[in-house]
Design a protein that fits this description.
The protein has helices spanning 3-9, 19-32, 47-54, 56-73, 97-113, 142-158, and strands at 37-44, 79-84, 87-93, 116-117, 123-124, 128-134, 164-166. The strands form two sheets. The protein has a five-stranded mixed beta sheet, with helices on both faces. It has a single domain, classed as Alpha-Beta Plaits. It is α+β, with helices and mostly antiparallel strands. Helices cover 48% and strands 21% of the residues. One of its GO terms (molecular function) is diguanylate cyclase activity.
């Protein structure tokens, strides 16, 4: 992939897919998949506090580290993108709901256990909140499924953060 292609499809800071590229790859998967399709909306908890306490350079390190940690836990065929700011989305298929929830659990646990070293020898850690959407017939587009995941993300944040919410239909 040349540098121009990389800039058009990858977020400059985290190197995950851009929002635009996430949708370009996600729409065909949405249209071809049944109810085994899941979308996650992920938000880094209290990133503003980290930025305020340590500076935006550390906040950028947190964003990059969290993106790498999530990427390492995901199934190889997952689509992973930065939606903007401190929000990420993941799209994948899972054979069962339990397999999907295991993936979500692994993401939450791995991020929470990660210590991010700083230049002064100290380290910071963070947690994330995850909203989960599953493809059901009432979702007629990837956008509507992402909206469902965003609603459940808000519920996860309101329930105390460092958790995930899935609303079964």
């Amino acid at each position: 992939m040349n540098q121009l292609d990389m800039m058009a499809t990858r977020d400059v800071l985290t190197r995950v897919l851009t929002r635009k590229r996430f949708f370009e790859l996600g729409e065909p998967l949405f249209n071809a998949s049944g109810s085994e399709l899941y979308v996650l909306m992920i938000d880094i908890d209290y990133l503003k506090k980290i930025n305020d306490q340590y500076g935006h350079d550390v906040g950028d390190i947190v964003l990059k580290t969290v993106a790498n940690v999530i990427k390492d836990v995901l199934p190889p065929d997952a689509i992973f993108g930065r939606m903007g700011g401190k929000d990420f989305s993941v799209m994948y298929t899972a054979q069962t709901h339990e397999v999907s929830m295991d993936i979500v659990s692994d993401i939450l646990k791995t991020v929470a256990e990660t210590r991010i070293p700083l230049k002064d020898g100290s380290a910071v850690s963070c947690t994330i909140s995850i909203g989960i959407g599953r493809k059901y017939p009432e979702f007629n587009s990837l956008g509507s499924l992402l909206q469902e995941a965003d609603i459940t993300l808000c519920q996860a944040k309101e329930s105390g953060r460092n958790t995930s919410i899935f609303r079964d239909r």
